User: What shape does this take?
Amino acid sequence: EARLIAEDIIKRLNNKQQTYAAAKHTSTRDLDFKDFAILVRNKTNFNVYKRVFIDYQIPLKVVDNEVITDQSPIQAVISLIKLLAHKITYNLSESEEKLAYLSVARSFLVEEDDKVLHKQISENTYLTSELMKKLDEVASKVKYLPLQSQLEYLINEFNLNENIIKLNNVAVTLEQINIFINKLNELSKVGYTISDVVYYLDELITNQIGIDAGISDDSENVVKIMSIHKSKGLEFSHIYYPELFRNFSAADYRGEWRTSSKYGIVGRDYLSDGKYNFVHELQKLDEEAKTLSEEIRVFYVALTRAREKITLLAPKSKQKKYGSISDTISFLELFTFAKEEIRNLEVKQGELKGIKLNEIQSSKKEDEKFKIPLLKTYEGDFTLKEISKPIAKVIAEDVDPQLLEYGDRMHSLLFAADFVSKTLPNEISESEARKITKIMNLDLFAQANKHNHYKEYAFYDEETDREGIIDGFILLHDKIILYDYKLQNLEGYDEQLAAYASYLEKTFNLPIEAYLVSINLGIYERMEL
Assistant: This one.
């Protein structure tokens, strides 16, 4: 599959295939390496793709959760920020101050001799060192400045960019530091102080949660390969989906006892020779249905990452027939089950034009040691599709672009929070914790439990041809409590909530109560549908 994808990319580039030059679809340009991405279920075969793409001389970047806060240069910068915060408002203990001092003094920023450091720490003379004097001077000048200005001044005073030259991998370290500083600057936009940042970083380190490198910008002309999970929120012109034949992760149903949220404690029936009873089978079916539902959601995320074209690769073999969708055990089988319906799809112009079946084959000769099977590819053409979802547009138009990142973060924290036990996520600041705790304690969520509370619910409404992701709803026996988070303003979202409510009412055949929840204010308001 890796070789087939590499050859297909080269073919498209040599044929000068076009892609849209801008989001507004006003002009086109030649495809480039950066327009392609490969999405996989897991990271097992990343090295295979590296080797193959080197053979074909295609630049490939593995987008992985590289934790940059584990790197020594970043740790030195964190310690430098801690010392500055200590000089302004944040109180470090004596041991914390000494550790931060040693981290900076031994790093590429200062490179102090170890014997000198030992003497300074032993005799407590480090407080009058050149490093601490310099920090005193910086603190006096930036004390009343916003966080972003403080960080910029600190970086310039300690000649960060020049000192990086002392390290081995200059380019990588520079990129990591820029990513780290940019992430801190985003916190500045939503009112974080330097003390908030230190507390936030300490929480990440204490709970062994790092800041990852994320995705580099589009200026880097490389093909990217990543997991489907990592691709959430990203879009690329052309995406390949290999490894569709891999089976879903199945639960282990062996053992004497199993627990089920729906059926309670399930064990063998020892009055019938220790055989499993029908409750065990019901529980097994329930678990399989949940697994399939989650896999379908993952597949939905994967398929909606493409702006223009998708290519799914599958072994060209006779496909079995399925009685129902519950018989499928892989993405390939899911797609095969629905293939005929998709191929015969008739939609309005400007949307999905259809699915066509192609065959691609490697130019390499097959031999006994290295066989490349003929593969099917299902290629969907999305070149006329408007990427922004109708519902998503409503959300985006009323939000200050500078607060979008903050809004995304608060949504992710609310998704991770446990509304039943009132447990907060680990990677959270004091101000974020206060806001989320206030929301979790609203009487709106009084009837929520782990079985009826649905969050980040993706849907597609066939009647209206609209799709979206509902922040959450609580499914009760007599009604559904639908809610949607907003940063502050609770006006102007009637159409959006009406679309959500319409879909849920048709799906569950229950009346809907719709609410908007203000993240910043910690209040909610019922909306008339």
DSSP finds 16 helices and 17 strands in the chain. The radius of gyration is 27 Å. Residues 278-303 form the longest helix (26 residues).
